[in-house]
């Protein structure tokens, strides 16, 4: 069974850091993974993605240089380290898996078949 469980969200002040975790079931542990977010009243958007082995990463322009995606295969976990957070980073953050590995780098959520339940990140000014 495919399961993705996010954790680590919370309320922080602007400029602070936060680390999100996405624990994946063993079946998905080597799939390319992505993080997406959805702010109130907005469409869900791509944040970052990582290849199965973890050697290749992609970022949205709005988070590049501030966020880092990485994975620990031994723990079946994908992380999103978020630094220098801004109020505009406020959103529900989702992790997702691309089982076919064909479009994960595009940022297009249609390539991601499996999704977590989301975790809320709120950044106050």
Note the main attributes of this structure.
125 residues, mainly beta, seven-stranded mixed β-sheet, four-stranded antiparallel β-sheet, 11 strands, 0% helix, globular
Count of separate DSSP helical elements: 0
Helix-strand string: EEEEEEEEEEE
- The residue-averaged pLDDT reads 94
Q: Please identify the structural class as seen in this structure.
A: mainly beta
Largest sheet: 7 strands, mixed
First-last Cα distance = 40 Å
Low-confidence stretches: none
Overall geometric form: globular
Which percent bin holds the helix content?
Answer: under 10%
Radius of gyration: 13 Å
Quaternary class: single chain
Count of distinct strands = 11
- Strand fraction equals over 45%
């Amino acid at each position: 069974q495919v399961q993705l469980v996010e954790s680590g969200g919370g309320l922080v002040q602007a400029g602070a850091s936060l680390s999100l975790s996405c624990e994946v079931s063993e079946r998905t542990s080597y799939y390319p993974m992505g993080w997406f977010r959805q702010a109130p009243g907005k469409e869900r958007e791509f944040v970052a993605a990582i290849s199965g082995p973890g050697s290749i990463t992609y970022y949205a322009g709005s988070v590049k240089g501030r966020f880092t995606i990485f994975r620990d295969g031994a723990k079946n976990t994908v992380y999103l380290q978020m630094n220098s957070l801004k109020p505009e980073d406020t959103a529900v953050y989702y992790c997702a898996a691309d089982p076919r590995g064909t479009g994960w780098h595009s940022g297009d959520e249609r390539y991601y078949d499996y999704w977590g339940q989301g975790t809320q990140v709120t950044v106050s000014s």
